[in-house]
Amino acid sequence: MTGPVQADAGPGTPLFEARGIVKKFGEFAANRDIDLAIRPGEKHALLGENGAGKSTLVKMIYGVMQPTSGEFFWNGARTVIHKPAEARELGIGMVFQHFSVFDALTVVENIALALPPEPMKALARRIERVSESYGLAIDPRRAVHTLSVGEKQRVEIIRCLLQNPKLLIMDEPTSVLTPQETGVLFETLDKLAAEGCSILYISHKLEEVKALCDAATILRLGRVVAHCDPKAETARSMAEMMVGDEIAWVERQGPSAESGAEPGPVRLKVDRLNLPAASEFGISLVDLSLEVRGGEVVGIAGVAGEGQSELMAALTGEVSCDRAEAILIDGAAMGRAGPTRRRLAGAAFVPEERNGHAAVGELTLPGNIILAHHAAERVATRSWIDFGKADEWARRVRETFDVRAGAEIPTAGSLSGGNLQKFIVGREILREPGVLVVSQPTWGVDAGAASVIRRALIDLAARGSAVLVISQDLEEIFSICDRIAVIHHGRLSREHPAAEMTPEKVGLLMGGARPEDSEIPAGEVA
Length: 526
Hints:
Elements: E1 16-25, E2 28-38, E3 43-48, H1 54-61, E4 69-74, E5 77-79, H2 84-90, E6 92-95, H3 107-112, H4 120-133, H5 149-161, E7 167-171, H6 179-194, E8 198-202, H7 206-212, E9 215-220, E10 223-228, H8 235-243, H9 255-259, E11 266-275, E12 285-293, E13 297-301, H10 308-316, E14 327-329, E15 332-333, H11 339-344, E16 347-350, H12 365-372, H13 390-400, H14 417-429, E17 435-439, H15 447-462, E18 466-471, H16 474-480, E19 483-488, E20 491-492, E21 496-497, H17 503-510
Parallel strand pairs: 3-8, 3-9, 6-7, 7-8, 13-18, 13-19, 16-17, 17-18
Antiparallel strand pairs: 1-2, 1-4, 4-5, 9-10, 11-12, 11-14, 14-15, 19-20, 19-21
Helix pairs in contact: 7-8, 12-13, 13-14, 14-15
């Protein structure tokens, strides 16, 4: 049957159940005999490595695609969900990781697009009532392009809540939020669950899963491998269930502490960098200054859209700076130099966007190595690659960083997101660069891949390189960085030792608080 169920089933019956779900793409099975039961009011986590089958499963639950075999049940009655509109009619809402809002429209106009027609004033009043009831303060009349990332997520959630969902699916909902915004979100989800709405929660942040969820289903290679109570587990034990092996857990300990040595000389310096916004929706960089020494990892925290992309473009040389001296690499003025010259000076870069920016999907892995480092042999001391043996170097990256692929010489586009990220990071690290700048190093990758990448960054710094990490993930920032700065609306705070910071202090700065609001002494934040 399809459509809404008029009466709830008896006590103990799951609100939603999947039985024996299989999804095949040709001969490849993305989901294999999946069983999943979600009870009314339950906050249920769906966990697994990249490629474990989570996204495929929730797309079927939401009606985006159909299972090859198996059955779904709603309140104990078999149901077939042909499309998202039927899922919403049934009572299933979904907040996607990448927001589907239009910047040029207002909040109320965006929400109206997903609802049956009604007068805008009446809808605005409903939005205000729901936002006040669930602690999701938002002005329906504001243009979306003026909202923070956290506020845009509120628009997505309110849009779902106005459809009175009984099951709310959330895909990586805190990846762009400050700790304070995450706290507000969890309060909202707790209130929804108390009112009987079930939550299906997908996240790589296992400490958050422990704090929020009542139950968890863990997938590996398309199969269910475990059910557990997250509160009775550790983040590490859940991660090991996900990967099926022990994980070399990266604790919070910076490279200088591990090597026992003092940081070396300044290898990367940003000096009073100013860069006007490239468009009306861009961010201007204002008087940014930063130093990274050899032997340390420095982290730049911030929610998305606060100037990270603009800063990364300035650091890589894709955008020219106002002065040559605005960026120095090992003392050489590079602010007006292009990417090739900066690479020749010993710098390496890992941009946020894997496909198309960090790698060309249609090229093989050896081809991507040659493309990224075509100028390396022009410097005798950095003659690290023999172009005739690029395939051997690709194999070395794959072996060192556990890059898994289905072909002997795969294309970059054939790798999963986590494996492609390991390849890109490994490709740069094996050059032994003097300076490495990496943006969102473990974005969307599973715990096992994240551990490999973070350990590699720490080890590179321990060998004397200067490592700058731009990340929205505070767990990551605190686990690997010696010093932390925060970017907000194109301005950068001074770096502070990680031991002197807390997620709450960083979160306040991420939200635009003044130094005194985060209990950091006045004058210590630029």
